[in-house]
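step: validate -> pass
step: tokenize input -> pass
step: predict -> running
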Amino acid sequence: NNSIQVDKDKFVFVIGNGPSLDNYIKIIKKYRDNAIVIASGTAINSLYNYNIVADIYVAIERTITVYDSISDLPKDYLDKITIIGMNTIHPRLFTQFNKKFMFLKSQDTGTDFINNSKYKILNHSNPTVTNGALSLAISLGFKNICLFGIDFGYKDSKNHHSKNSIYLDKSHKYFEKEFKDEIEIEGVDRDIIYTQEIYNNSRKYIELLIKDSSKDINIYNFSNGAKIEGTKRVINPKDIKLNKEKINKKKILTNISQQFTIYKKDIKLNKEKINKNIKKLEKLIKEYNNKNITIYEYLKFCDIFYKRFRIEYNNEFKYLHQLYNGTIVTLMGMIYSYASINSDNKKISLFIYKSLNSLKKFLKKSRKEILNIEKKIDTPFKWRDNG
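step: predict -> pass
step: emit ->
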């Protein structure tokens, strides 16, 4: 069920951290109780500085800086907000909130690892958090969506985010201050604005999300940045008849929460299957690898190995293929390239033999790493925890 129990005329505000956010703070404050407010990533810090409490906070990024930005905020402030985070974020980010739910990234190895149908998968939820926030709003069934601060660009490279943004905080050491390799794109008012490749790609994927969505959704763009196909440019809220009365947020948020699964840190991997399948690969290497192996035998091995690896194991447990595909295929190609330029058969055999031994060691080591993944989940934080 992808719909929520609200009237069709109810509004949701999806808030980004672009420079135009500052221009619409009065509007957001005025109608904050008349709409569901979704903060995208670091927009939550700007909203806090403006004394605005979001209803929902969406996070998708893996980086440690996301946790850092949230840990700067008071606990009593975060306790008022529901986090709906992607499975790619660090588990410690969830611990900062009382109300915490998780969704899964589509076409992702981590999603295959979790392999649990109880978690909702959101499409078009990357590359930036605004994609995830808008995907969430649409998937929940809202028909009237307002975009604030979702600029995907800027007119002044020194002001690429809200002035209250953590990005422009000179005392904060975790974010880049310089924006280089700028791209010129069309702005909402037909002027030229500047952007970065990631923001431009984010804009394109939002346009794709809108195109793939129901035709009866109204997406009103208050942002004063890039032109976004499929949205309606709005400056004055009177033009769209925002709800004049307070909405029953508690009821709506309860219905939203019921569509998601509460985040728990006890997500289990099927370790027995992982162990079994990687051992199959190790055994196959051992069967073919000998000190007198020829290039012909090596190519035969590659053919059999890759067919089993890609077809049999992929069907049985597909993320094994996703994890190793790039590494193994590249390595096999390099082994053949280096071996084929040598005319000494003994050296060729020895090189292939040692190379495949290295591949075996790699699989064995990586198998142990995967089987102990829960113990390593806090690795980025150890240096802080130890003082």
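step: describe -> The mean pLDDT is 85.
step: cleanup -> pass
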